[in-house]
Amino acid sequence: xxxxxxxxxITPSILAADFTILGxxxxxxxxxxxxxxxxxxxxxxxxxxxxxxxxxxxxxSKATRLPLHVHLMIERPGEFVQAFARAGxxxxxxxxxxxxxxxxxxxxxxxxxxxxxxxxxxxTPVSTLKEIMDRVEAVLxxxxxxxxxxxxxxxxxxxxxxxxxxxxxxxxxxxxxAVDGGVTLENAGELAAAGCDSLIAGTSIxxxxxxxxxxxxxxxxxIEATSQRV
Length: 230
Ligand code: DX5
Ligand code: ZN
Description:
single chain; 8 helices; binds D-xylitol-5-phosphate
């Protein structure tokens, strides 16, 4: 039985969108019922790539009514929480590996009235979040090494997803389980069955002929599979 009936979230990652027509891309997924827009922020230090920053989040907040989920792949994330929150972020994702002061950063996200999500790189165990998981809105399991879109899903991450699902069942934690990296129509069902409520996907949504249809299908596959949860 699914004891945590969070509605399934499908969150397109704009890293894979066509930036020359970003407004149209967002409109298409918004009309198809996307739950939010995932915005990847990279600084060229924490990850070996540079992407987008505060001004883009500010523009997006004017262009869509969807919640903006800002994934910080940057060093010193605590120093940027306020700027992203004030630019319009609704949920802020911070990597466990990016700060020795995770509790302080999570508190600062809440002070800005945003949802706090903590993120685990593929090699970081779930146990590193033991002391914080009772007060975050989401835990994100990276299913690729962060930095680039279009990478191959790492199947060993199913173990982490199941472990998180089991922990929240046992202790009644209220966090969502999110996955990011290599999420496709092929694995959406299995991910939801393992306990994921939040599917973040770039390539498999925007590199298709119809991003809207991809969102609808992914949601349907995930919802169908939640009945298989233990
Ligand atoms: C990777 C980013 C992801 C990325 C996912 O570092 O955090 O959000 O956009 O892209 P796909 O879905 O193409 O793997
Ligand atoms: Zn991301």
